[in-house]
């Protein structure tokens, strides 16, 4: 069957976008870099999704990765390190995140089945591409996580949205320690939907060319999902990670009789004190936000503030550039990170703020939940969420009031 190439000249070797009959395919194609995302890849994927959304011949969109090591290991963080040393670095990073987070929201609200094969390594930006899909398929080889605190950053691409909605404090543990999870963990924690043996992935892809996504997946998914290792750890995790006080969390982890708890404390203390403190606050605030768009806008504010500081560039240097694994965090201890320092990461950006379009889900009796996009982004300063264009969702007003009161009294 012939394929219609849709990718731009610039990005055609980094991401392959083509058609197999009713199936539109996105193939991340940087296998030597574990399919890490570049800005051109993000722009190319977004443009293709926009085109396919209005193409009646497209029934399903499929996301996969080239090579045998990863779906996607995240964003191209070396470019952040490189851009940080230039006059236009801040603007380049801002544009990258604005386009990436807009793509994450586009995937979440996509009007057609979006199937993500989350096989092997799925980290950071890879979670942003797959974790918001309508059909999330994992395998026995899946290793999924948000490793951002390791480089002095905070889970983004909607990671704090996903992690803050995991039962109990499992998401807090994963975010602060940068630990990964298995495919069965991902299903148990709500980050995936179906478990398919990796040996059946080729057959699943072939079926997606011939039948609706839900039917194809149902035909290939395992009847029994393997046990989720993280669920066995939930008791001590829920106990130790409760509350908003990170030093108290560390203290409980260190005093726990569970060896894994002490190891978790050691892992957190090795990371940027600023990053882990802001991560905890990001998760707690994300719980109070109504939708993914609100969380992405919060993550954008935090991301710009963090990259303008010291620790992100230093973390990338230590982990990826020089690889000495010995970052010089500033400040170097948790008690040196003040409440004012943390709150500053969440302050409004004014004209620089990311303002994502909201999507209204039609609620007519008997409807199939078709999506309608508002024609324009919301005006500067407006606070509107899901609802008819020009209206305000009561949840948004209440959440905004609660957050404003919290900031005023913090």
Characterise the protein shown here.
With 410 residues, the protein is an alpha/beta fold. It has helices at residues 39-53, 77-84, 89-108, 125-130, 159-164, 170-177, 183-188, 201-208, 213-220, 234-240, 246-255, 259-269, 273-287, 292-307, 311-321, 339-344, 394-409, and strands spanning 15-20, 23-28, 60-65, 70-72, 114-118, 121-123, 135-138, 143-145, 180-182, 194-195, 359-361, 371-373. The strands form 3 sheets. It has a 6-stranded mixed beta sheet with strand order 1-2-3-5-7-10, sandwiched between helices. Strands 4-6-8-9 form a 4-stranded mixed beta sheet. Strand 1 (15-20) and strand 2 (23-28) form a beta hairpin.
SSE layout:
Layout: E1 15-20, E2 23-28, H1 39-53, E3 60-65, E4 70-72, H2 77-84, H3 89-108, E5 114-118, E6 121-123, H4 125-130, E7 135-138, E8 143-145, H5 159-164, H6 170-177, E9 180-182, H7 183-188, E10 194-195, H8 201-208, H9 213-220, H10 234-240, H11 246-255, H12 259-269, H13 273-287, H14 292-307, H15 311-321, H16 339-344, E11 359-361, E12 371-373, H17 394-409
Parallel strand pairs: 2-3, 3-5, 4-6, 5-7, 6-8, 7-10
Antiparallel strand pairs: 1-2, 8-9, 11-12
Helix pairs in contact: 1-3, 2-3, 2-15, 3-14, 8-9, 11-12, 13-14
What keyword list fits this structure?
410 residues, 17 helices, alpha/beta, disordered C terminus, 12 strands
> How are the strands ordered across the major sheet?
1-2-3-5-7-10
Largest sheet: 6 strands, mixed
Number of helices: 17
Query: If you compute it from the alpha carbons, what radius of gyration comes out, rounded to the nearest whole angstrom?
Result: 21 Å
Give the strand tally: 12
Measured between the Cα atoms of the first and last residue, the distance is 61 Å
Structural class: alpha/beta
User: What is the beta-strand fraction?
Assistant: 5-15%
* Overall geometry: globular
Unreliable stretches (pLDDT < 50, length at least 5) are 1-10, 360-410
Helix content: 40-55%
What is the average of the pLDDT values?
Answer: 87
